[in-house]
Amino acid sequence: MKFLNFSGMVASIAVGTGVALGFGIKGLILLGIFFVSSSLLSKFKQKKKAYLKEIHAKGSERDWTQVVANGGAAAGVGFLAFFYPDQVWVPVIAVLISSVNADTWASEIGTMVGKAPISVRNFKKVEAGTSGAVTVEGTLAAAAGSLAVTVAAGVLFVLAPTHLLIIFFLGFTGCFIDTWLGAFVQGSFKCRVCSLNTERAIHCSQPTRLISGRKWINNDMVNFLSSVIPAAIAHFIFLNVL
Ligand SMILES: [Zn+2]
């Protein structure tokens, strides 16, 4: 169904291998929930999103950088769990996957059904799909995305209710980190020719102009950080507090 290009496929196999080493079939099921649901969501509303390709640096087909941004940390935790077995890795991987799932559901569903999102930078309405902007629908979708993975993790790994509550909450938090980084840190550009606000470095065959954020921080990096930060918090809480 062309969810991935070739480099994306190779990266996915690497991510799957890492997760399978550390967490076996249960880890793969958890990863599969994210991968299948986000792929279907992004295909489902592709027509409506056609114009988003102009704003976003990439289309819906994933390449290796997007796979690594969303799954690289999960693979890393898989390898850690394999070489240094410890109960703490289970909630860490659950938070990683629940937060990437929350982020993806939020952006896919938010751009599909949400009204004009509000930028958290200036509280003005911006075009659907703009980084660093929120809608009520997208926020609810993020909660649902985190919940879906949390419930699956609870069933697969038999986790205590309090642990599940923390996993759900941290996974949900990832989408706020994503929005905040997207608004204030991610590079945002303007086309010198058609004046479109875009995440692309080149538009209308011309280099675009940086209007905010850091030039070298793109959406992939923001996605990566917004799952790694809650996962690191989970690691601290499950190791030191619980
Ligand atoms: Zn342009």
* Overall 3D shape: globular
Strand order of the largest sheet: 4-3-7
Structural class: mainly alpha
- Uncertain segments of ≥5 residues (pLDDT<50)? none
**Termini gap:** 43 Å
DSSP strand content: 5-15%
Bound molecules: zinc ion
Following the backbone from N to C, one meets helices and strands in this order, namely HHHHHEEHHEEEEEH
Q: How many extended strands?
A: 7
Number of domains: 1
Oligomer: single chain
Write down the overall mean pLDDT: 89
At a glance:
With 242 residues, this protein is mainly α.
Any chance you could write out the topology, listing elements then pairs?
Blueprint: H1 6-44, H2 46-49, H3 52-55, H4 64-83, H5 89-113, E1 118-119, E2 133-134, H6 136-157, H7 161-184, E3 188-190, E4 197-198, E5 202-203, E6 206-207, E7 209-212, H8 219-241
Antiparallel strand pairs: 1-2, 3-4, 3-7, 5-6
Any descriptors?
242 residues; mainly alpha; three-stranded antiparallel sheet; two-stranded antiparallel sheet; 7% strand; binds zinc ion
Can you walk through the features of this model?
The protein has one domain. Helices cover 67% and strands 7% of the residues. The chain is built from eight helices and seven strands, in the order αααααββααβββββα. The chain has helices at 6-44, 46-49, 52-55, 64-83, 89-113, 136-157, 161-184, 219-241, and strands at 118-119, 133-134, 188-190, 197-198, 202-203, 206-207, 209-212. The strands form three sheets. Strands 4-3-7 form a three-stranded antiparallel beta sheet, with no helix packed on it. A two-stranded antiparallel ribbon has the order 1-2. The model has no long low-confidence stretch (mean pLDDT 89). Bound molecules: zinc ion. Residues 191, 193-194, 196, 203-204 line the site of zinc ion (ZN).
